[in-house]
Amino acid sequence: MGSFVANSPENHDQIAIVMVPFPAQGHLNQFLHLSRLVSSYNIPIHYVGFSTTITQAKARIHGWDLATATNYIHFQEFPTPSSFMSSTNNSDNNSSETISKLIASVLDASLTLREPVTAFIKNLSSTTRRVVIIYDSMMASTVRDVAVSIKNAEAYCFHAISAFSNSSLYWDVIKNLLHLPSFIAKLAKKLLLPSGAYIPEGLPTLKSTFTPEFTDFMRLQHRCNKFSSGNLYDTCKVLEGPYLETLARFNRLLGIRKQWTVGPFNPVTITDFKSTRHECLEWLEKQAPNSVILVSFGTTTSLSTEQIKELAIGLEKSQQKFIWVMRDVTKGEEDIQIPNGYEERVKERGIIVKDWAPQLEILAHKSTGGFMSHCGWNSCMESISMGVPIATWPMQFDQPRNAIFVTDVLKIGVIVKNWENRDDIIDSTTIKNAVEKLMASTNGHEMRMRAIEFGKKVRESLKNGGDHQKEMDSFIAHVTRY
């Protein structure tokens, strides 16, 4: 990292970068990874947020050691709103209603950061020659004051979702605003989209994937996002080149001409820096190559007790080896309802993790051959960069579109749950069949080979001279140009 040498570190010491993440785990994780990448250029980073979310982000770092970057990454913590504290500490989070309340509390809490973040950046600007703000697209309203009022500050918008999801959402907005008939829309799509940018018809709608509160919040952020000097994306050209070109075309219409593709953020070479390894990694060491499927659904999703039971039975029927991370699914440790005697029956083939698990390290392990996932973009990027195919089970937000990107565009995944069936219980037979297809079929092997090839290309892009390195060097050269 940090191959750019046109400006020496001495020229960077009066430049500070302020990271403003959205206070949800996936976004916090991306910004912390990005902080690691930027800090490798010897530029001081100020990562701002609530004290509890920063503590959480630090605790869940995986694949690299924060201690190696503390000379350049500084954390600015603000008091956590009591309503946000109570919602995130709720141990009875096994219902979609509770998850909806949690999401609403995150949205409300994020709006309270405007005043303290503004004060912090104004103070920093008085002691630093130049301040560069990198803000989440969901936090435009938080930094809108300083981005336009401080002469020595410049702001860049980071987009946390895939270029495929982003560009397809743009297209939906354009089509709906112009009220284009279907045959004209198809013609316009051919004219507007570059070669290779395949956007299927009938993608999940905003209404079906986001709550009304979340949709209103996104609209607010879009209205406030009038000051960006450029866009950053957590993806890479080898995966999403045509969709990045699509975004460039759309953004030119909005007057934004600068964009950088700086993903993947997650490390692709895992260093074992901890004194003790998680027990699931020790278990993986004993398994054959590509024989284990990881089952994990992120930090803001929930499964009903009935669905947990069907999933448990489906995994058992498949006769495939698995690591099932349950706490991230259910949010409760004592209330997990799995069939009586289940853990004893599957102990030779499966391991159930009821706390946090090192997902990146598991995906990087040679014994891991598949990943049943909610298709959050972080998880997709981690899986693809490690060459692991995906069994898709989207829950909300951009995940249904990511799932389609995995299965229909990259063709490195099988469908467990179609978005059209989002309100249905997926039975154990469907789960069994999907797992067997991914892990023990000719089609699954072909998907794995394609995933491995994509993984190689992604990892190549991170080497000196690769697309990722060129994009990072270009961005650093741009923000240190004065």
TrEMBL record:
<keyword id="KW-0808">Transferase</keyword>
<dbReference type="InterPro" id="IPR058980">
    <property type="entry name" value="Glyco_transf_N"/>
</dbReference>
<feature type="domain" description="Glycosyltransferase N-terminal">
    <location>
        <begin position="13"/>
        <end position="267"/>
    </location>
</feature>
<dbReference type="GO" id="GO:0016138">
    <property type="term" value="P:glycoside biosynthetic process"/>
</dbReference>
<protein>
    <recommendedName>
        <fullName>Glycosyltransferase</fullName>
        <ecNumber>2.4.1.-</ecNumber>
    </recommendedName>
</protein>
<dbReference type="Pfam" id="PF26168">
    <property type="entry name" value="Glyco_transf_N"/>
</dbReference>
<dbReference type="Pfam" id="PF00201">
    <property type="entry name" value="UDPGT"/>
</dbReference>
<dbReference type="GO" id="GO:0008194">
    <property type="term" value="F:UDP-glycosyltransferase activity"/>
</dbReference>
<dbReference type="InterPro" id="IPR035595">
    <property type="entry name" value="UDP_glycos_trans_CS"/>
</dbReference>
<keyword id="KW-0328">Glycosyltransferase</keyword>
<dbReference type="InterPro" id="IPR002213">
    <property type="entry name" value="UDP_glucos_trans"/>
</dbReference>
<comment type="similarity">
    <text>Belongs to the UDP-glycosyltransferase family.</text>
</comment>
